[in-house]
Design goal:
This protein is an alpha+beta fold and about 100 residues long. It is built from four helices and four strands, in the order E-H-H-E-E-H-H-E. It is globular, with a radius of gyration of 13 Å. The mean pLDDT is about 95.
Amino acid sequence: MALFIFSLRYIAPVEQVDALLDEHVDWLRANHAAGRFVGWGRKVPREGGIILAKGDSREAMVALAATDPFVAGVVAEVEVIEWAPGFLDDSVAGLAG
């Protein structure tokens, strides 16, 4: 299983983002329950967010990212970055699977 970073960037006013926030959080929680997401949070300043994910292929993760209500609702765009850690501190070593 590979590691991925979803880097979201808002492309609409924050009021439009907030209108989809509950759906987005439900999507995050469902993917966490399914074992795909291991963490997420807002960028500071609030211009988007980051999702840490695990998946079998880049193609599958790009398809998954497209189902984010923020992306599907055209209030954010997402960059999916495959990440091969060279080192993980013991406090986060579980990310590697």
